[in-house]
Amino acid sequence: MAPDGEVAPAARNLGQRSLLWRPPLAGLWLRPWYDRLATWGVARLHLPMSRAWAAADAETGAAAEALAAAEAAWLDGFFAPVPPPNDVLTHLDATRRRCAARWMWRRLRHPAAAVSGPPADFAIAGPVEAEAAHAARRDGLRAAYPPAQATVEIGHPLTASDRTRRWLRFSAADGGTAWARLDRPHAPPRGTLIGLHGICIEEDFWPPVPDYTAQALASGWQVLRPEAPWHGRRRRAGTYGGEPLIGGGPKAFLDFFALAVPELAVWTRWARTHGPVAWSGFSLGALTAQLAAEAASHWSAELRPDGLLLVATAGHLAQAALDGSLGRMLGLRRRLTAAGWTETELARWAPLLDPAGPCPLPAERIQVVLGSRDELLPFAQGAALVRRWDLPPAQVTVRRQGHFSVSLGLLAQPQPLIALLLGLPREPSA
């Protein structure tokens, strides 16, 4: 662990493994032009091809069959009564990842969708459906987001040179299984960083990419990465990861948070035995973490986070989605109006979607990172949350970047994350 105020050398080196992450190249592409290009690519290429890929999901093909076989063997190995040798687990995981990536890349077999295909299967439920499903939850956060209770099952460890990796799971409230991947340093961890991903992110199904939470691992913390509902192994048949949120409107977000927020209590209770627990989230993950932090004020102490890192977030979800660049490209305002959603109706559900109370943690235990050129979740919306919580300047980092580049830039410039971890209580690890 580096001295207070310094970044661990291993953490600094993570951002130096590729020329893309080193000055001057990082400063050239981690800029707003990259975000505009990335947003266009997501809206006009990735989502339409993903929709066509998901529509063909029911078709049996060699890639799907190979993944099913690899996933079954992976489950049998990592959750076997007796742990297999490490080289066997390594082979099982490599095979599963290879098959998953090959299956995911089948999106490229649908190039025509990028020209004329829809970006999602839009099935926006109206206010009446939202009322029927969630009206009782508007009585307050205590009733809206009670902490989930479940027993966490831990898979066998996969040992590498710099970490031990496990997968954890428990029975989710929707009848499925909640999953998380745990990376742990070989030395006893200083604590746990729970990292919540953005929409459409499915880390266990694509080739590995750099991620800012690796800085925590390099600084001696274990990193727990829960899989959000409707993503990865929790993907709904016939949809791509995250599609129910993109195509489902406000009720879909109400359904999503009703699952994702209480589940954080289960992961936090498990992680608490290893010292302090910090929550981190990017985009959708940040929206989940900030809402859960407010809900956790009604939970018992061991379920609450000790620290919070929010990256590219927004204070008002509905307004940010309507005003944001991706929402405009998807014609979200027109689609919501057609489904019966007015500004008044949207405002009625804000208490279940946006943190509205005072700052849920001591300000010195919160870090917020915003891109001043963020157009997807507009910067003004993130700034509104900062003002609502009355966070001092030392707890807020604003970089001249956009939605994606401000997150990617944390890999080489992780000071907000390191500052958060250094400021947490030094409880003994189990």
Task: List the defining traits of the structure above.
430 residues, alpha/beta, Rossmann fold, 10-stranded mixed sheet, 19 helices, 43% helix
Give a structural overview.
With 430 residues, the chain is of the alpha/beta class. It has a single domain, classed as 3-Layer(aba) Sandwich (Rossmann fold). The protein has 19 helices and ten strands. Strands 1, 2, 3, 4, 5, 6, 7, 8, 9 and 10 form a ten-stranded mixed β-sheet that branches. Helix 4 packs antiparallel against helix 5 and helix 10 packs across helix 11.
Give me a quick take on this structure.
By secondary structure, the protein is an alpha/beta fold.
What is the tally of helical segments? 19
CATH class: Alpha Beta
Q: Number of domains in the coordinates?
A: 1
**Architecture per CATH nomenclature, i.e. the level-2 architecture:** 3-Layer(aba) Sandwich
Largest sheet: 10 strands, mixed
Tell me the radius of gyration: 21 Å
- What is the CATH topology descriptor? Rossmann fold
Order of helices and strands: HHHHHHHHEEEEEHEHEHEHHHHHEHEHH
Number of strands: 10
Tell me the CATH superfamily: Alpha/Beta hydrolase fold, catalytic domain
Structure classification: alpha/beta
